[in-house]
Amino acid sequence: MKLPRTIYIAEPSEVIYEGLAAIIRRTCPSCEIKHVTDFQLLEKNLGPSTASATVIINPSFIQYQQKHFSEIRAEYTSVVWIAFVYALMDPKMNPLFDHIVTANDPAQVIVDILHSKPSEKLTEPETPDILSEREKDVLIHLTAGLSNKEIADQLNISINTVITHRKNISQKTGIKTVSGLTIYAVLNQIISIEKIR
Amino acid sequence: MFGNRTFYTEKTELSGLVINHPRLVQVCEYFGMVLPYGQKTIAAACSERNIRPALFLSISALYCKTADAPREDLTPSDIPAIVVLLKNTHRYYLEEIYPEIQQHIQLLSENTRSEEMRLVEKFFDEYFSEVKAHLDYENQLVFPYIEQLLTVKNNESHTPYSVQDYQEHHDDIEQKLDDLINLLIRHLPDQCDQKIRRNLYFLLKRLDDDLKIHSQIEEQILIPLVRMLEQNLQRQ
Questions:
Q1: Which residues are within 8 A (CB) of B225 and not within 5 positions of it... i.e. 6 or more apart?
Q2: How many domains does chain B divide into?
Q3: Residue B200: helix, strand or coil by DSSP?
Q4: pLDDT tens by residue, A76-112
Q5: Among B74, B100, B120, residue at a domain's last position
Q6: Measured between CA atoms, how close is B119 to chain A, in angstroms?
Q7: Which structural domain, as residue segments, surrounds residue B227?
Q8: Are B165 and B109 a contacting pair, CB within 8 Å?
Q9: ipTM, 2 decimals?
């Protein structure tokens, strides 16, 4: 089970922070939990090293700076943002977060979210479900049974680029195995069914 | 335990527990407890099967997703009951749910007569053989090894064996199942029968869920207990 290593709790109330922290520690004793009491402090904490952090945030922090928050979110795409709501929140703010949890939800809701994969985010970043031409090229070679190295040589790109393309292909299609991707490629007329016989 | 309202103990009636948590009817079955439960308490039902109520409640909590494994109060004496549980889940996979999924996929394939559906059928058949191979490996190698450990008095004669590749197998099995779910929900064309497709989806999700807990039991409960047992034997 992979849990995010660092969890920031941006919450002014000490009592609520302690409650959330206790719930998280129960399920993930090794998680690093950091309490931040205002948004500026959170921004300072989110350095380049916070690739896979999760932030549980009181929406009131960003009520009057939603645009700024959107920019921050766009900058840290791999951070999971969870709004923890116990007062009224403008529903228009919903899309700003990956998940929304209210104080009336069972504690398990938070735990489940922390356990969920990033691909299960509420709002997907703007990646259309369509593969780019380059990704299609990689997919065609992949279904032909070529290794990453062979694909890199054929397409004149680095292995790392091939790996990135593969990751994007899997993220867009939801399919990870080569045999699964082969079916996807046939269904979308990227390769013809005769090719795989 | 089990959500924030009710706290179940070994004095709770088994029927009450199962009525509030329907999926536990299957967990009971895995443990060899069959319907009807009558007025039996959890403790009584467990003692009939030589299961410690603490183990039963821990595993039940896992299936109800109200707690994470592992619990500190489990001991190597719980291993036989865990092995029974795992063997019964294997039987459920091999004899019930996988064949049922296979039937649904075959039905879809027959109904649409599309080449693409035939590919899905092939994908599933290959996947199913891999699963069978893995479950056979556990049934024929891992469980007998553990059972042997339980009966030896000292470390004179147990076969050295490693459980390293456990995790890898499980990841692979879950990944292909994930792919199947994604193909069904996101990609397969709409000429497929909606009802079969929906039922197939439910079956796949049920299997997916059960497999996840199954590997959790193996990796986070069984293996650590077996290691404990191995260490105890070495010390003798």
A1: B74, B75, B76, B78, B79, B82
A2: 2
A3: helix
A4: 777 888 999 888 777 778 888 888 888 888 888 888 8
A5: B74
A6: 7
A7: 76-235
A8: no
A9: 0.82
